[in-house]
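Example complex used in Figure S2.
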Amino acid sequence: MTSLITLCQKELRDLSRNRSVRLLILFLAVVVVLTVLVAAADFRTKTADYNTYLAALQASGGAVTAPPPDLFPLQMLRAGMEYLEIVGSLFAVILGYGLIAKEKNNGTLQLLFTRPLGRHSFAAGKILAALIIWTAVTTALFAVITATLLIAGNAPLTGTDLIRLLIAAAHTTIYLTLWSLAALALAALTRAPATGLILALVLWLVVVLIIPQIGDTMDPDNQIPGGLFASLQIDKAHEHAVMANFTGYETARDLIEQTSLTKQYERPLFAWLGIKNQYNQQSPAFVWAGTFNHSLWLLAGFAAAITAALLAGTRDKLLRKA
Amino acid sequence: MNPWVATVGHELRSAGRERLPQLLLMIFIGMTAASAFIGSAAKATVTEVYNSAAGQGLTSAPNPFGNVPPLYYARNTVIYILLIGALLAIVLGVQSAMRDRRARTVDLVLTRRLSPASYLSAKMAGISLGLLAVLGTSALISAACISAVTGTIPAPDQLLRLTALFSVAWLFLLFFVALGMFSGIHASSYTSALLIPIVIWSVIIFVFPLLGTAVHPVSLLNPVTPPTAPQTGIFALTAALTGPLSLGEHFKHVAAILLQDPQATGTMTGGITVILAFLLAGIGSVVLTGRPSMRKEIHD
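Predicted assembly (622 residues):
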């Protein structure tokens, strides 16, 4: 246990001194803040357009029928969350690879294993460090997001909103740590860590970009700019009625999407933040009932990544391949 | 043998032996083939959805997919070029530069009568030829899959358009090869050599379009152009600043016109100019590298 803590502390010191890691996290924070500012500017533009339309309508004596744009502060986080989903996971892969690569490249692996370490202490120390670092980074990122929403977005946040942000941050921590551990396991299993990095990047490409892209492209409503049903002037109730005849296709599309852990992360995240309209302003119990299975799949993926990292990061495997 | 030609041949052989670019290549070609079938499944479903809605009297609008051109089925390929193709190009560029630095062959090569510019341009030419072969194969597969889905061989005009698409894709991807090579030459470690161009790629593909149009990153992966923010106020400024840098969006626009997307408007001139400008900047930055930079040691 002591050796695990020592290894974890050493890893945290190394990561906090690593300039590349600091730059990546700063980049991520800047991008996420930019997305909130862009969303706030977009909302202001829409409100200004609405007011212009309203004034013109009133001047011509017309009756106002269209409602003003609604401000749901957490919906402004959509683009930022998508960046965490895509770019954040990419950085998590790099970080996880680095945890093993530096030991292999510096030749410190042999030295470390001359000490009386438990079978899984080395890997467990790295896993704990990855979890701590991503918890800290996610906490900092969500604190920055909240501050940006309050200050630049001029968005009022309720206590429930803060709890929703906390749940979103927890999902993000699990998702990013999962990617670091997957990359750690691949870097540990391959002879050259660089090979592990590229394998992890291929995995990232397939899980984060390709599978969700296939599912998204197969969505009938994504075939026309602005949506198929909007272009056909069909309202939501009738849309559901029509789509009820295509359950087989929709189930297949859903299954394709669900094979990606990124979607298992995105679905509860978007639900808790109210980005998906069906969950917006709904009670936590309603959101949980609709998305708990995705959260559990994400947790299962996390557990699998921990197991893979523990099994790959043993003395036998690391020294055999070094 | 002319050293330049020998370097081109060596680069082609070396790139062909790398197993990891081969993996990306297999995914790329596989997805190019799948693209037509994904498009076909989506089109068939949309038509059925439309027929169902029209049958129930819910709409009187014409079927938006009533008369799609056969090249519609290649539009997902454009996204795979942006994602998989660009990453493949980056990995090829990085590995080409890193191979020399790791084996310390640069010192030896530069003792011969071959300037750094000639050597690096030969390496670029070698990878370009390899990439051309990959894209040529993808174009053939794409044409075959479109034929399988539509039941007819595309007309000569459509085959020409498909060839033009993959030619523009070649120019587009060469910039990422140059970016990868530049990073591979200058970075202090393999990790940063791979990481820096991937971060630049993510900024070009996802961040610049968001700043100019407020479009969400995931919608950028859909071949259908999402509605953008009105180009007024702050967005007029950000779009003017980031628009020319949104290389991926320019490529998508050119591709949409080539594939006869009914939603695509305007001309290809601006897009092709941006793609060529990026490519020239990329090639220029690689071939102008000096001897000291090429001989730098790597730290992992």
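Residues 2-321 of chain A form one domain. The longest helix of chain A spans residues 19-59.
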